[in-house]
Design brief:
Alpha-Beta Plaits, 2 domains, nine-stranded mixed beta sheet, 6 helices
Length: 232
């Protein structure tokens, strides 16, 4: 029986960036079992832990902002949860925040609206990335085809991009740092590598997710979080 819902924000570092979504779910289930967290389980012939990730992270991507709901069959404080769970996690996974979420809220996956990324690319010599971004954002549509195995999918990649901007890239002078804000909901999710290709640059050197934006998030809500009104 589910009696409490805790929402975790956690990081995924370099050592975890090639883990698939399914393997990550199994990883968390094992870690929470070792930590003796009272996770609620589904009923039926093959019970499974009641945990849910907000949005699958593309393989090869690191993140500071992964979200996961954990349903418990008895209550515990966020502090107790962290003290039990964090020692069972590798250095590449750190619990950054824990907060209580209402049991009646929609599923976490249904609440995601967009994702923000830091994307490092190495444009060809003489390539004007600023002009390419400006042209992309000014276009009403950008037809795109994505080939996977023997299937080709055609769609408007412009509709998946909410914003693009160039910011200084630290460390590597050969790279340019692009901030991407991409749609991520039940109608579709933008992929940083495909957006980079649509801009005319090679595959990204680095992709890092910095934020997942949920429905109802507002500047006032963000300020409330930063003032420490949520448990951590």
């Amino acid at each position: 029986m589910k009696v409490q819902r805790l929402r975790l924000t956690f990081t995924r570092g370099e050592d975890m960036k090639y883990i698939t979504h399914l393997d990550l779910m199994r990883f968390w289930e094992r870690a929470l079992r070792r930590a003796e967290i009272p996770v609620a389980y589904s009923e039926g012939f093959s019970p499974h832990a009641q945990i849910a990730l907000a949005s699958p992270l593309p393989v090869g991507t690191t993140s500071d902002a992964e979200l996961m709901d954990v349903f418990l069959d008895r209550t515990m404080t966020p502090r107790e949860f962290r003290e039990r769970a964090q020692p069972q996690l590798p250095p590449a996974v750190t619990i950054a925040r824990i907060e209580e979420a209402g049991m009646a809220l929609p599923s976490l996956q249904a609440e995601v609206r967009s994702a923000e990324y830091e994307v490092d690319v190495a444009p060809p010599a003489g390539f004007d990335l600023g002009a390419a971004i400006a042209a992309f954002l000014a276009a009403e549509t950008v037809p795109w085809e994505h080939k996977r195995d023997n299937e080709t999918r055609s769609y408007d990649i412009r509709a998946q991009v909410l914003d693009l901007s160039i910011t200084p890239a630290a460390g590597d002078d050969s790279c340019v740092h692009i901030r991407m804000v991409l749609k991520n909901d039940n109608t579709g999710s933008g992929r940083p590598d495909q957006v980079a290709a649509a801009l005319g640059v090679p595959s990204p050197v680095r992709v890092h997710r910095t934020k997942l934006v949920l429905a109802g998030t507002s500047p006032a809500h963000e300020a409330w979080r930063k003032r420490g009104r949520f448990a951590s």
